[in-house]
Amino acid sequence: MPRDMMRGIDIPAETPAALRPAQQAANPRRVAVASNERDVPLRMYVDSFRQKIERNAAQIGLRLSATPARTDPVVSVAVRSDGSVDEVTILRSSGRADTDDAVRRIIHLNARYAAFPPNVAARFDVIEIRRIWTFAETLKLLEEVR
Predict the structure, then answer these.
(1) Which of 85, 93, 97, 105 has a 20 to 30 Å separation from 65 between CA atoms?
(2) What is the pTM of this model?
(3) Residues 15-66: pLDDT tens digits?
(4) What is the CATH number of domain 28-64+71-143?
């Protein structure tokens, strides 16, 4: 009986706009990459962004004060298709102004990230990369699980 009920019902291939986040629905050429993202080229771009930040943070000579941050900051970086930084938003502060400033400085010193690959640029103008920044012996950008 359930199969008979399902006949004639069209199931859309993509998520309806009402179920997408409001910002993404308003601008479909902007995407916020989540930890469960299945788009392989998009995940590869985000991973290259993460690797560049982590690799170059040590070379920049990041110096934070001896007292640790209260919490690891959660940062959203919006990157344009040409690799320039659109905006940097600290969604959860570390509780220390010098650590939050260091995050912004690292992002801008590494700026001019790789341009989007053609298959990603054809679909998106801006990619928002939201990560948890952990400062231990080295900087690590971790995916936020929601």
Answers:
(1) 85
(2) 0.76
(3) 444 444 555 556 779 999 987 888 999 999 999 999 999 998 877 766 665 5
(4) 3.30.1150
